[in-house]
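Cross-check.
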Amino acid sequence: MARWNIHNVSVRGVSACVPKEVVHTEDFSFFDKEGAEVFNNTVGIRERRLGPDTLCASDMCQAAAEKLIAELGWEKESIDMLVFESVTADFHPTPPTSCLLQDRLGLSEDCFCLDIPMGCCGCMYAMNVAGNMLSNGNIKRALVLIGDTALRMGSMQDKSRVPLFGDMGTAVALEYDTTAEPILIDFHTQGSGYKALMTPHGGFRHPLTPESFVQEDFGNGILRAPKDTLIDGMAVFTFAISKPAKTVANIIEELGIDRENDIDYYLIHQANKLIVDRLVKKLKLPVEKVPYNLESFGNTGGASVPGLMVTRLREQLQQDKPHRLLCSSFGLGLSWGTMLLNVKNLVIPELMEI
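Predicted model, tokenized:
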């Protein structure tokens, strides 16, 4: 079983950064006024943030990290590890963006750096890796930077994908702490479903060729080329409302969790309203404990869970009162994960715009 109980690690702070430009659903050329309103009401994403072509995920993560480090009062030399989770690295395939961020943030040359490209489950993967490395006390502080510029991965003329996503970068500060409550992280993978979320051309299996840039019209407003990331909406929907829900239900039952009294907030990956609503209903979660921000930011990939903490729970999580969070993410791979996290007194700067 791919499950970890991570001891001796506390979350000290969370921050987030988004581009200034707001794109409303009606701004997309493939929607008329009626179609945009139907999308807004069913999918639940009314606006999203889109960065210019010059803005990378690392830029937003760097801004979020700088602000968080300053408000925590951490000396940069004290940061022993930097993890960058993203599928939109600065360069492809090399060098690792985490190494570039070590330099740009002015961290010590003794800082251990690592890239993790796991998409929507990326926050939990990165938290798991950094948390386990911190837990034995060999290192004391880690920065987990999670972000994507997912809109630019696909065709801007692909109605099935582009209106779902938004750009965001986040930073999570972790610290060795022998008094901390354990962090539980549970993972699963169904690699046979990888074609539901993929970029067909551009890797070593299918290198870029002239044909990679030739667009095909799939009908219903879907125009894309093999170099563009695609999403099989029905396959993803079926996966998202079944596998993650079953895992969360099993953990709740196994640990004897009282849905109403033992969990303060349920942070569900903001894929779209249809999926989140179905999971809430299927798992019988108290609606008032399930925050949403997809109406303003869309699907921000791995940044979704920390983004919720900054944009919807900032005031609550800064309090000197413990909050227990149950987090669920799902996406590329196909992969899905569940995390139980106890936090209090978090440092959470206001949402940044660049």
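The first strand starts at residue 3 and ends at 6. The two ends are 41 Å apart (CA to CA). Passed to J.P. for a second look.
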